[in-house]
Design brief:
Layout lengths: L13 E3 H8 L3 H17 L8 E3 H7 L3
Helix pairs in contact: 1-2
Length: 65
């Protein structure tokens, strides 16, 4: 008897500049600037951030996706 497990592929919790650039239709360097700006606002709220990445949920909330 075998049990088959099916896993749904979930999108990553964080997105990189390349994905931000694709979503917004901007250059990768502009995407890095946007991520930095969003991360700075999170830091102002005493949140821990990762350079070059942004929370997918926070990004979508801020850009109204």
């Amino acid at each position: 008897m075998t049990t088959e497990r099916k896993f749904a592929i979930e999108p990553s919790r964080f997105i990189h500049a390349e994905e931000v650039a694709e979503i917004l239709g901007v250059s990768v360097s502009s995407a890095y600037r946007i991520i930095k700006r969003l991360n700075n606002s999170l830091k102002d709220q005493d949140k821990i951030t990762v350079a070059g990445k942004i929370s997918r949920r926070y990004f979508e909330e801020k850009v109204m996706l």
